[in-house]
Structures are given as structure tokens and as C-alpha cells.
């Protein structure tokens, strides 16, 4: 849960252009907050077909390169001369998702901010394999996936799609409110429906959500589902000038469907704004 004290922000990086875009987004997003930013690079070769042929000398070279590039990234970020910001680096040979889980626990991370794809990302797919792994494994803090070449815009409008079929936990909504509080953002609660009204369970869950949102700016919006859910969401993002798309990642949720690798190419989900993923 994000506190009002100094924040700890983790930025996984492979030193790609997309990773730098995510870094710029993070530095701008928290420009007015006291933060320590942790840059993490993994040199894991866990899935390399040629792992058995890798020499210790080569691994040492990879580790040295990782450390040097992390130090250069730290210096580049520090050139913005924000006295509220401090920087640390983490170079590891651990697999990326496990390395992030460990870093989150050890350093009390409040938010993970990553690019949507890395240096080898395929343009037609929104989520790269590392981003998918992080979303699947990260259970203890929220994360933001920043689209390639995205230019920072103050998040004043947040879209929060829901079907009201599930009770939201207080900690899930608090993560959303913590983010909204950064810039006193308006929360647009979007319900995509195949039918006109809500059933009794949905009505109850909607009222419960309203109770969580007291003292915050919010509105409810209904869209009749006529196409794919991802297309409907992106249409709403454009129509309402949405700055950030926020969703809770729970079992059988839309987020879970998106990040399951066997179906990700079929769904073709490509948010055009940063994607805030909140763990259940």
C-alpha cells in the first residue's frame, strides 16, 4: 500500500527505449514526492538454449556490463536534478519475475513501473514476455505498464472498468485511491454490459464500491457491449480523454485473460495509455 511517507519505486530495465520511456514516466509521475527509485536489471539465462555452453567468464562480463549500464542509467536520471529523488541499482542473475518479487519484499516497494515490451519486443503485441511474467507473479504491490514512446501526461482521468460481479477488497480500492490522490484525479467507473440493468448482486457491489469512493471524484458510466471488451475499453479511453487505465488482477478477471500467454495474441489487447494493474 502506498504511504504518505517516502515512496520506494521499482523500475525493471533492459536498457531499451521502452524501458527509458517507463523511467521518464515514473520520474514525472512522482516529481513532487520524496522517492527512492530502484533500477533493476536481470541477466538471467534461465531459458537460454545454449545455457550449458555459457562460460563463467562470459557471465562475469554480463554482470559487469549490467552494473555499468545501471550506473549510467542512474546518472542519466539524476541529471534531472530533483532533490526529492534518490536512486539505487540492483543487478541480478535471478529470473526477472523472481528478482522483482524479492526486490519488492526487501525494499518495501510501493509501485513497480515497467515498459510494455523490451528490446526484442514485437510491435503488434502490447505486452512483452517479461511484462507478462511480472503481472502474473506480482501479488504484493501494484504495477504500471507504460506503452512504448508514451509521452507523460498528468493523470487527471482514470478509467476503472468493472462488471460489478465481485466484491472489491478495501486494499484493492485503496491502491486505486492512492494513485488517484497523486493528482486528485477523477475516476471513471466503466461497466460494460450485454444487458440493460444490474442484478441484485451487482447492485450491492456497486453500492459497496461507492462507499469506498467517498471523498473522491467519480462517475459511473454504462456502455452496451457490442464488440470486443478491449475495443470497447479503448473507445472509452479516447472518448473521455482517459490518462490511465486501472484494473484489478483477480482470478478469471480480464487482466488474467490478457496476461495468459496462450491467449494473449488472440485478445490483441493494446491500451493506448499507461495500464495500472492492482493485485487482489
TrEMBL record:
- Superkingdom classification of source: Bacteria
Start and end residues of each UspA domain: 8-147
Q: Per its UniProt record, what InterPro entries does this chain match?
A: UspA
Q: Which family does it belong to?
A: Belongs to the universal stress protein A family.
Put simply, this protein is called: Universal stress protein
Which taxonomic lineage does the organism of this UniProt entry have? Answer: Bacteria, Pseudomonadati, Bacteroidota, Flavobacteriia, Flavobacteriales
